[in-house]
Structure formats: C-alpha cells, structure tokens
Amino acid sequence: MGEQVEEARAKELQIAALEKQQILEFESYLAAASTKQTITEQTSLLLTQVRNISICNHGTIFTSY
Fold this sequence. Notes:
By secondary structure, the chain is an all-alpha fold. The chain has one domain. It is 72% helix and 0% strand. It contains two helices and no strands. The C terminus is likely disordered.
C-alpha cells in the first residue's frame, strides 16, 4: 500500500508542476499583450491567487507551487 501512496503523490506533484507551468504561460501571454513584462514564479499574480484559494479550500498549501 505504501508504494501506491508514493505513486499517487508523485502523480499529484507532476500534475501540480504542469498546472503551474500552464498558469505561468497563460499569465506571460497576457502580460506580453499588455505590458511586455516577463512573468516568473516570483512575479506571478495568478500563482499567488491559486495558492490563496488552495489555502482557503484545503487549509494547507500545495508545496509544489
């Protein structure tokens, strides 16, 4: 059973990383159209919002964001 838990966690981390990358790409697309600003994980406003929603809904934050 421990192996299944590890596999599930690894899959969750992969999905979270993909979602983070997609959010950054989308925000970069929006920024390029308006401000030409480069968006990184540190400057992203959308990732901050996702973290806040995650905290409100789950009481914890996903560590992969």
